[in-house]
Design a protein that fits this description.
about 230 residues, alpha+beta, Jelly Rolls, four-stranded antiparallel β-sheet, 5 helices, about 20% strand, globular, binds 2-oxoglutaric acid, binds fe (ii) ion, metal ion binding, iron, oxidoreductase activity, oxidoreductase, IPNS-like_sf
Length: about 230
């Protein structure tokens, strides 16, 4: 453990990651101005609420590595590299590697904040130099539902000759509000909450959904054991 930590240190992992986050933040801030103007807020309204220089910042960079999939093994029904979900942040900047496909989105849904499975899924092929921007539940709520959060998932490769079976690397930059930011849309459709409360509620919801899924899977397993006894 100590060795791998010092390796990271020696190779400037922290510095490089922070520099990358700073650049991703600059891109995000350009988009924040557009969303603020669209909603009638001051240009810097969302930028101030997502100030990554403050200790109250909740913004996160997630580095993802999905392992290569063995082409000879069948993919169990309903199994995804990342299951259908909406992000709970303001916006997510998603950085993909060319050739490592799998991301799919389901735009146009009128509901979010629950784990619904979408209607029509569209592939988002990674293109060099492109950044995918997903709207999250926070922006949906903060815009009184004008901007809808994007359902997305990452497919597990299953179709030979069509899907990409190799490892997938991606990076997700989640713009999350400072814990003390006050969140309420211009039409006050939802009661005001703090950034901390919004994130906490989203985490609780995700955790409860995960627990229910695990229990349902366990129930299936127990049923199978009883049936074969
Ligand atoms: O790997 C990807 O492209 C998607 C990751 C994602 O949706 C997430 O981490 O929330
Ligand atoms: Fe996501």
């Amino acid at each position: 453990m100590a060795d791998s930590r010092s390796n990271f240190k020696n190779h400037g992992f922290k510095e490089e990651s922070l520099a990358f986050m700073r650049k991703a933040q600059d891109v995000s801030e350009k988009l924040m101005v557009c969303f603020a103007r669209g909603l009638g807020f001051d240009d810097d309204y969302f930028i101030k609420a997502h100030d990554i220089s403050r200790p109250e910042s909740q913004t996160v960079l997630r580095l993802l590595h999905y392992f290569a999939v063995d082409e000879s093994l069948p993919v169990p029904e309903g199994y995804y590299r990342a299951g259908a979900h909406v992000d709970w942040d303001f916006i997510t900047l998603l950085f993909q590697c060319a050739g490592q496909s799998g991301l799919e989105i389901c735009p146009g849904r009128e509901v979010s904040t629950s784990f619904g499975i979408g209607d029509t899924w569209t592939k988002v092929e990674p293109q060099p130099g492109e950044i995918v921007c997903n709207i999250g539940d926070l922006l949906m709520s903060w815009s009184d539902d004008r901007f809808k959060s994007t359902f997305h998932r990452v497919k597990t490769p299953s179709v030979l000759g069509e899907d990409y079976f190799g490892p997938r690397y991606s990076m997700a930059f989640f713009n999350q509000p400072c814990t003390d930011a006050r969140i309420q849309g211009p039409l006050k459709k939802y009661p005001a909450v703090t950034g901390k409360e919004f994130t906490q509620a989203a985490m609780n919801r995700n955790f409860a959904a995960l627990k229910a899924k695990k229990e349902a899977l366990q129930g299936l397993k127990d049923g199978a054991t009883v049936a074969t006894d």
